[in-house]
Amino acid sequence: MPNRSDRSIKTQLARRHFLGIAAAAGARLAAVTGAAGAITAPSDANSMGRNWGKHRGKGKHGSNCFLRGTTLSTSTGEVKVEELSIGDLITTLHGEAMPIRWIGRRNYKSTHYPTAGNVMPIRIRRHALDGQVPHSDLYLSPGHALLVDGVLIRVMDLVNGASIAPALPQGTDTIEYFHILLDGHQVILAQGAPTETLLLEGQNDEHFANFAELRQLFPGIFDTPMKPAAPIVGYGGKKHLKALLRIAASLVVRNDVIYDDYEKIAARAFFVAHRELFHEEAPL
């Protein structure tokens, strides 16, 4: 049980940590004008900002994946993504059980990933999104989107350097990514957090080492465009503007959905830091 003096020191440290997060959020807001194009620019408030633009790839939505070890909700409970097979039933956010049509795979050697901003996973700490979600640390590729307040936001746009930041699980020496294709673009639960399944567009299956398998299984799969499961903010240009209008979001900076969610999640990082310092549950 920490004494009052120790608790005071730790509280000051936690507050300084929170102020650092707030400063990063302020820098992000200051860099934004009212224009839709400016809203989508990656923040310079984090160390990886200069590399994120490289992540876009061939598809407009970029590449998105679950790191090896991530558990997904299935009809039989949570299962690690690397243990799943085509035909297994994944449970969607709405409770529907849908069969896996294909699993994309890619991996990177340890000598390659440290300097690649589009490869290093981003960790969403336990309870970073709210008091329960995710139920344990979740690792996603930078372009993977989370469902937050009814819209899909790439995890790279939520990085705050604390509760959401580039990181690897302890002892990881090889990055292995997997992604799940269902019938259409869906929202599923990964470590209890609502995340997207694979959204096929612009031949972005070529991000995966086994893309030839997909085209053999489903010839002409790109002939019919896949509709996003929810508005995706962060595209830039007309698509971003349309997504914002669909959810009645104003282009005034303070009301922009990405920055509102960014600030909310960054503020929660104070409570996450408090809990870790005192080894107790922080107030929500």
Structure description:
The chain has 284 residues and is an alpha+beta fold. 26% of the residues lie in helices and 20% in strands. The strands form six sheets. A three-stranded antiparallel beta sheet has the order 1-12-6. Strands 8-7-11 form a three-stranded antiparallel beta sheet, with no helix packed on it. A three-stranded mixed beta sheet has the order 9-10-15. β4 (89-91) and β5 (97-99) form a beta hairpin. The longest helix has 27 residues, at 4-30. It is globular, with a radius of gyration of 19 Å. Mean pLDDT is 73; it is low at 16-62, 235-241 and 243-255.
Summarize this structure as a short list of keywords or feature phrases.
three-stranded antiparallel β-sheet; 20% strand; 284 residues; alpha+beta; 6 helices
List the helices and strands and how they pair.
Elements lengths: L3 H27 L5 H4 L9 H4 L13 E2 L3 E4 L2 E4 L8 E3 L5 E3 L2 E7 L13 E3 L13 E3 L4 E4 L2 E4 L9 E3 L8 E7 L5 E4 L2 E4 L14 H7 L14 E2 L3 H10 L10 H22 L6
Parallel strand pairs: 10-15
Antiparallel strand pairs: 1-12, 2-3, 4-5, 6-12, 7-8, 7-11, 9-10, 13-14
Helix pairs in contact: 1-6
Brief overview:
The protein is built from 6 helices and 15 strands.
- List the strand order in the largest sheet: 1-12-6
In helices, the fraction of residues equals 25-40%
Order of helices and strands: HHHEEEEEEEEEEEEEEHEHH
Mean pLDDT: 73
> Over all CA atoms, what is the radius of gyration?
19 Å
Q: What structural class do the secondary elements suggest? A: alpha+beta
Approximate strand percentage: 15-25%
Main beta-sheet strand count, sense and barrel state:
3 strands, antiparallel
Given as residue ranges, the uncertain stretches (5+ residues, pLDDT < 50) are: 16-62, 235-241, 243-255
Taking the alpha carbons of the first and last residues, their distance comes to: 21 Å
Strands, total number: 15
- Morphology: globular
Helix segment count? 6
